[in-house]
Amino acid sequence: MSDAVPARTAWVDIARGATIVLVVLYHVGAGASADLLPGEYSSYGAWWLAGNNVLVPLRMPLFFVLSGMLATGALRRPWSRVRRPRIADMLWPYLLWSVVFALTTWPRYTPQDPEGGIWSALRGIVVLDSPYWFIAVLPILFLLTRFGLRRPRVLLIASVSAFVLGPILQELLQDAGPISAIAVGTRRITEYLVWFVSGAVLRERLLSLGGAPRPALAIVCILVFSPIAVALQVLELSYVPRRLLILLAAGSGIIGAVAVAACAAQVRWIAALGRQIGSRTLVIYLVHPLVVSAVVVLWRDSALASAVAGSASAGLLLVPGVTVLAVVVSLLVSRVLARWGPRWVLAAP
Fold it and tell me: How many domains, the chain?
């Protein structure tokens, strides 16, 4: 997440920026809409939830593809040059910010049982069940990809197999007694390894794809992705067809996102905005859960919440408004840390 992006690949920053905004939107629209819109949860809140769920096959797979693509150089460097930036600088903020989250967000999640909520959140850190699981999974995927990169086709096939079999493995682990706690973390590794590997193995093809605007390709991919993503939410599908459709939806969505980002990169202000947001994804990822939790606590029993309850404006604007607020606050924190520090909150000391 920290690799520099060359100017010629402005679309990468746009894609990264769009993806982190979608992540924030998901945490607001799917994770917090019941608190922000309690009276309208059956209508406006349900629409925000459904819209975010439709993007599940795109949001995190795209994030991991971009991460794998940007990690390609590091995958081939000597271990001594990558163990700090690729391992320590990911695991340290994961641990630090997960502890901060556990200690500060109980008023939102467990106001009646602060101690129980804190201990539950702290235990989740160990098994990759923290809100910051993404940056803990990244080093694991990096190591797995580095180990198998000499045989990229075998690695890609193995990662697809892990994706297909991942839910089965999770179910087995959930029934495995003492080790059942690792089921969620294992599922996340098997679910996203294929996308990190794809980004690393197919880097040059992705760069070529994003090297020129292809609006027709973007439209075709959107037309392929959209009905499949909706079908995954509304249809009862058997196991194998569902896993294959997720792969198809994610693949078409990723290609479409690259094509859209390449078109958007031709617009100067979008490219500049993408650079501002896309180069600060780590800070946004770390800060926004705390902002969202604070907003929920301040909002749900406030006089303003009571005043706008049931209004169309609140139902339509509150979720995107909180999303923008969380991103803006994160960018301000990034600027403060860049100017005054302390730097150790974002990287290993």
Answer: 1
| Domain with 198 in it | 7-345
What is the spatial distance between Cα 187 and Cα 17, in angstroms, rounded to a whole number?
26
Residue 15 lies in a domain: yes
Q: How many CB atoms lie within 10 A of CB 209?
A: 18
Residue 95 inside a domain? The answer is yes
- Whole-model pTM: value is 0.94
Q: Nearest-CA neighbor of 3 among 245, 197, 291, 279?
A: 279
The answer to whether position 2 is within a domain reads no
Report d(CA 312, CA 43) in Å as an integer.
10
User: Does residue 154 belong to any structural domain of this protein?
Assistant: yes
Per-residue pLDDT of the chain (349 residues; tens, 9 = 90+): 444 444 448 999 999 999 999 999 999 999 998 888 876 555 888 889 999 999 999 999 999 999 999 999 999 999 999 999 999 999 999 999 999 999 999 999 999 999 999 999 999 999 999 999 999 999 999 999 999 999 999 999 999 999 999 999 999 998 888 788 899 999 999 999 999 999 999 999 999 999 999 999 999 999 999 999 999 999 999 999 999 999 999 999 999 999 999 999 999 999 999 999 999 999 999 999 999 999 999 998 899 888 887 788 888 899 999 999 999 999 999 999 999 999 899 999 9
